[in-house]
Design a protein that fits this description.
Length: 247
């Protein structure tokens, strides 16, 4: 159950990335590639850092809970099965990342297999040509332009995948059809970045907990040192004052 909840959070990160990218699209789709590429990479890196930190917090919390249960067990309080399931397990974060990325990865894999080089598709006729449709000599050929094909399965897959990696879609927007095809081919790897960041953060849970314990011990040591220094100054002040004179 814990893995499913984490997987849902990972999928939510990917959907929120696409939603936020749409909201700030005018900023991310600037014409200059020197501005467009860094802006989109910065956005994607920021969301990946959030996922990494979220995974690290989750891992640290579960490690700390396991340590608390171990101390209770030493005191004669046996942990429950629910408590044991909530403790840190390295593969939990990896499984959650895999589950969260699975729908996007399958869609991206299908897109990478079925994607073909982009070709020109017919567009709708301008309104000023509608009067020529009644002419026998040109009406038939012009009607051909109204046979616009539907989106198709590949198009729907592309929409789902591009939402999960929207900043990369903006990056390639000014580099032509070959760049779009390359993005389709690389999409199975790109959709794994955010889940991979979460899993990497989760796996660092024990290291983060050790660092937190080290900082806590250092803070306690400095506090004790500060108290000892204060007592030493007070003692020195009493000694320098000397015995009280009687009048």
């Amino acid at each position: 159950m814990g893995e499913v909840k984490q997987a849902g959070k990972i999928a939510l990160y990917m959907l929120l990335l696409g939603l936020f990218s749409l909201l700030v699209a005018p900023l991310l789709m600037v014409e200059s590639p020197w501005a467009r590429v860094p802006l989109n990479l910065l956005l994607f890196a920021g969301v990946a850092l959030l996922a990494y930190n979220d995974g690290g917090v989750r891992g640290q919390r579960e490690v700390a809970r396991g340590q608390t249960l171990a101390r209770r067990q030493e005191s004669g309080i046996p942990p429950s099965e629910e408590d044991l399931r909530a403790c840190y397990r390295p593969m939990r974060g990896v499984m959650a990342a895999c589950l969260g990325a699975l729908p996007f990865f399958l869609a991206a894999l299908a897109l990478a297999i079925w994607a073909r080089p982009y070709v020109y598709t017919l567009q709708g006729l301008p309104t000023w040509l509608s009067g020529y449709l009644r002419r026998e000599d040109v009406g038939g050929p012009l009607m051909y332009y109204n046979n616009v094909p539907g989106l198709g399965a590949v198009g729907y897959l592309r929409i789902l995948v591009r939402v999960a990696i929207m900043p990369f879609s903006y990056i390639i927007s000014g580099f032509g059809d070959q760049a779009s095809l390359l993005l389709d081919r690389l999409s199975p790897l790109l959709v794994l970045i955010l889940p991979g960041a979460y899993a990497a953060g989760y796996l660092r849970g024990p290291a983060i907990q050790r660092l937190a314990e080290k900082r806590s011990e250092e803070a306690k040591r400095l506090h004790k040192k500060k108290i000892a220094r204060k007592k030493r100054r007070e003692r020195q002040a009493r000694e320098n004052k000397g015995p009280e004179r009687l009048i």
